[in-house]
Structure formats: structure tokens, C-alpha cells
Amino acid sequence: MTSTDSTGALVRAEIDVAALRANAAVLAERLAPARLKCVLKANAYGHGVEIIARGLFAAGWRDFCVATISEGLRLREILGDDATILAWLYGPTTDLDAALAARIELGVSTVDSLDRLRDAAHRTKTTARVHLKADTGLGRNGLAPADWARALERLRALAPHRQRGGSETGDPEKSGPARTGPDESVLSLEVVGLMSHYAVADEPDRVETAQQTQVLESAHRELTAVLDEAQGRLGESDRLEVHIANSPAALTLLPFPGTSARVGLSLYGLSPLEDRDSQDLGLAPVMRLVSQVVNLKDVPGGHGASYGLTFTAQNDTRFALVPGGYGDGIARSASNRAEVSIRGIRYPVVGRIAMDQMIVDVGAGEVAIGDEVVIFGPDGPSAAEWGTWADTINYEIVTRISDRVDRVEIDGRKSQGHESRKTDGEDVESTRGEGAETQ
Ligand SMILES: *Cc1c(COP(=O)(O)O)cnc(C)c1O
Asked: Residue 25 is part of which domain span?
């Protein structure tokens, strides 16, 4: 593939949809009876939202989350009407009408946005389907305890009143201001979910996770009371979706809290846990980031490498030039620490990683121009290793892969045994396929 593709990008991210399907199945089985919500924010963690969304949809998954409304609108375009899409991050001036018109469910983290959503729903003659977001300890988005109480009050006030003349209003002649307002018989605001987010679920020994679960449970009781009091006019309490778990929580917590989990990282086959890798968790990395050797040069001992000459060869050696740098989203902070894999052998990245290229010291290794270079993936270094080398986490390593990199969809089943690449005239069988066998 690499050697015959003359126009594509030099750096490619192979996206294995067979591995993706297998990961979703493994996670869903672990979560059951709670349901899997697939998190596709940030271009599906850098994997390419179109490939990931279509791959999951084709495998039968219908429940998706993104962060922003523009991500939600894009996902609606890709998936059509048949998917449930939740977005939770927007500002005081974000256009909510567009979100409601596209039937995007919205997380609610301020009292003000409840009002804005109801107004938008009236304007667009739609129902705003909302997930109230409680801040149970993370301190990020979500209603803090005092705002939570105010939001419940606001919800009570927003509940459409029964038909005038009904049992609650007594004298129909004196029924309140709602009479001159918008049509109150339409359910303009429907509470379909209660959500929150853990802070330390990746550290199973910490007590804060259980504390957050308790806060969520009490919020659940309070919200249930408000919904029941409104007798269905704000949504049904027994159909309320409750979700707080992310990947680390989904993989570690028993009993499992909530009716569903919002899973991102592990869907892509990566581990959110320090002491367990993908394989330990039965997951297969979906992204394989590859480049190729485009130049080879013998250098004498004492020769430097790349900007700043921060690396000096101790002895005579051989430098391979590999396209791929921070312009592709490869972390410069991994300079002089990272490794890549060529023909199954690890070699060190030497000198600074530049915008477009890096230098790999291949010594006396058998390496030819045109050889495939695995930057990370199931048969090379892991995204987690890159995370360590770059002083960050695997989440960031995959998410930051930039637009210059081509995302190429592959299917593990096909690549296994069939995909081969030419190297110096001989066929080298691909050795991929973790995850493919689970299909
Ligand atoms: C990103 C995100 C998730 C997914 O987290 P993972 O650890 O990747 O599974 C879930 N919920 C919220 C609110 C998020 O921002």
C-alpha cells in the first residue's frame, strides 16, 4: 500500500474497524445491563469521526456522545436521523436552535441554559431533550450543589401547567399568565437523563469515586421527585437515563453505577489504567500510525542530529529519515526518547522531532528506503508508551494527530493474511490482527 500510493500523505493512520467493532462488543458485554454510549468527540479521539461513526453504526450502535454542538451537527450529517446524539459543551451565545432542529440532546450545566433551551424549543416548535448534569466533585462542568437546587426549582416552574380549568388551577377565569404565553400543552423541555463525570476513576484506590456516586444517587432521588410531581410533564422518572461512568469507571467499577456509560478511550482499544494495557483488558488498538523510510545515510561517530544537535552519534551509525513531526501531531516532547518499529525491530528517535520529520538511528539494522515505519499501533510502540515519552497520556497522543495525516479505513479481517507490502522486491506478510480474530 505505502509504496504504490504516490499521492497520499506520507504519514497514514490506519483505522481498523474490525478492532473497533470488537472493542464495542467487549465493552457492551462488560457493562450489561447498562448500555454503551459511544463518545466520538474531538474527531473520534483523532481517529476520524466519519470512519468511526459509520463503522459503529453499521455494527448496530445507535447511541453517541460528543462534546460540542458543532460536533453533534456533523455527526447528525454523517449518521442521519436514526442515531441518538448527546452534546454537553456550549456557551451562553451558542445557537441552540440548530441543535434542537437536529434533535441533539443536550447536557445542562447552568440554570440559565434551562431557560434558553425552553425558549429555543418554543421558537423551533421542538422538544428540548436534556440531561441534567450534576457536578458531583470534579469541579469542571455541571451544576454545583447550590445550582442543582436552583435548577430543580426552575424545572418545577418550567413544567407546563395542566389544561386551564383542570384540577390544579381552580377558577379557569383567573388562570395565570401562561394563558398568554406560548402553547403550554407542548412538552417543550423533556428531562431524559441525569449525568455526571468522575474525577479519579482511573485510580481504583481513591475514595472520591464512591463519594461521587453517592452524590449522584441523591441527585437522582431529588430529580425523580421533581419529575414525579410534574406527572410526566417534564419527562418520565422511570425512563430516566443515568450516566456517570467514563472508560476507567466502565472497566473497573462493580457494582456498575447508572443505566449507561459514556465510553471514549477504550472504544478505540486503549487503556485508561496505568497498570493494565489494551491486551489485559481484551481490547485492540484501532489506530496504527505509520510512515516510511525516505532517506538513509551513514554518519560518522560525532555527527549530530536535528535542530539544536541535541543528539550526537557515539559511533559510526546510520540515520533513517522518517516523515512525521509535530505538524502531524507527533509530540516534539518525545524527542530523544521515543522509539519506532521497522520490520518488527525497535529503533530510537534521535534528536528533536521537527515539524515534518524525525530521525531514527537504525545502526546496523536491516532497513531499506521505502520500509514501513510503525510509529505506534498494535505491532509497534503503544500510544501509552508515546504518552510516557511525551510526558502526557495516550488520550492526547491519538487525539492530537492532525489533518495532514490520512485516515485509511481497514478491516482487520481483510488485512490479516492478505495485506502485504513490498520491501525490496519480497513480500512481507503483515503481522497485524489483534482484535481481528475476535470478529
Ligand atoms: C471525554 C468524556 C467522556 C469519555 O471519557 P473516556 O475516559 O475517554 O471514556 C465521558 N464523559 C465526558 C463528560 C467527557 O468529557
From this structure: 17-272
Distance, CA of 156 to CA of 150 (rounded, Å): 10
Using the mean position of ligand 1's atoms as its centre, give its distance from the Cα of residue 198 in Å: 9
* CA-246 nearest atom, ligand 1: 9
Mean pLDDT value across the chain: 89
Q: Is the per-residue pLDDT at 286 higher than 60?
A: yes
Active site residue 41: yes
Q: Which ligand 1 atom minimizes the distance to the CA of 262?
A: 10
Smallest Cα–Cα separation from 111: which of 170, 152, 156?
152
What are the cell numbers at 262? 459514556
Whole-prediction pTM: 0.88
CA distance linking residue 146 with residue 160, whole number of Å: 24
Which one is catalytic: 37, 41, 198, 268? 41
Same domain, 335 and 268: no
In a domain, 411, yes or no: no
In the chain, how many domains are there?
2
**Which backbone phi and psi does 288 adopt, to 5 degrees?**
-125, 110
Nearest atom, ligand 1, residue 141 CA:
13
* Domain match, 77 and 223 both: yes
Contacts of 367 (CB under 8 A, 6+ apart): 293, 296, 318, 320, 342, 343, 347
- CA of 121: how far to CAs of 102, 128, 159, 162, in Å? 12, 6, 13, 19
d(C-alpha 55, C-alpha 66), whole Å:
16
Whole-angstrom distance, CA of residue 334 vs CA of residue 351: 10
Taking Cα atoms as reference points, which of 48, 53, 45 lies closest to residue 76? Answer: 53
Chain segment 41-74, per-residue pLDDT in tens: 999 999 999 999 999 999 999 999 999 999 999 9
In whole angstroms, give the CA distance from residue 161 to residue 31.
39
Question: How large is the average pLDDT for residues 346-358?
Answer: 98
H or E segment and range at residue 311 = strand 311-312
CATH of the domain at 295: 2.40.37.10
Q: Residue 1: inside a domain, yes or no?
A: no
Residue spans of alpha helices (H) in 125-244? 145-158, 208-229
Question: How would you label 244-253 residue by residue, b for 16+ Cβ within 10 Å and e otherwise?
Answer: bbbbbbbbbb
Q: How far is the CA of 397 from the centre of ligand 1 (A)?
A: 16
* pLDDT digits 0-9 by tens, 149-200: 999 999 999 887 654 444 444 444 444 444 444 445 557 999 999 999 999 9
